[in-house]
Amino acid sequence: MEVVxxxxxxxxxxxxxQLVVDVLNTKPNAVLGxxxxxxxxGLYQELVRLYKAGHVDFSRxxxxxxxxxxxxxxxxxxxxxxxxxxxxxxxxxxxQHNINIPSGTxxxxxxxxxxYEGRIAExxxxxxxxxxxxxxxxxxxxxxxxxxxxxTRLKTLSKQTIDDNARFFERRESxxxxxxxxxxxxxxDARRLxxxxxxxxxxxxxAHAVEGPVTSMVTASAIQLHRDATVIVDGxxxxxxxxxxxxxxxxxxxxxxxxx
Length: 260
Fold this sequence. Notes:
Blueprint (H helix, E strand, L loop, with lengths): L1 E5 L2 H18 L4 E4 L6 H12 L9 E4 L1 E3 L10 H8 L11 E2 L8 H14 L5 E4 L21 E4 L2 H7 L12 E4 L2 H5 L4 E5 L5 H9 L17 E6 L9 H10 L7
Parallel strand pairs: 1-10, 2-3, 2-6, 3-5, 6-9, 9-10
Antiparallel strand pairs: 4-8, 7-8
Helix pairs in contact: 1-2
């Protein structure tokens, strides 16, 4: 695992976006795993900027989103369909038929989850999976206690997650209790992982995920098992890392490492 510590949110977002661009420059028809939430927003804004500047092309890209709330239609302002369309998809040239997001309104959730897993396999697997992290250390909607070999499924959200996400809804009671989410096992199948985190509220979660034991109580800790994972954080999110100086030394010593 590589840990990259950037000065601030903007630098963190640009570094993560560059990793995506590097993958697409190597494989123009790459399969990207997408995450939602406030942290990846800057990453998507930077990718849109690079696209409009002619530095990256998404015309052959296929995407799979990590999760979606159950019960929210695609046009609901808090649905992840809406989020991705507003902040990314409508600004770049990914073909509509190449965009895959879990359905929050399917009539048969088990069948849909099985189909979603199969669809990822049909597309050759995910080349690069973007991840955020919850304040309790979860990835996607794999709440504490989730199996580290879990697959795409229906998941009941924890009180912590509902509390954390309540700020996006008019009232707490409006936050959905269930979500469809890729499992930890599904995420670990991606060829490369990039996890982004920003702010002091994520410092404890990052410390547990990067330097703590691998445990289902902190599902993000499973990235320690991955063969090619990069964690990109800003200074505040790195505050709890005991080996921070070492990570910074490694990054600075890399061949052709950026000096900014």
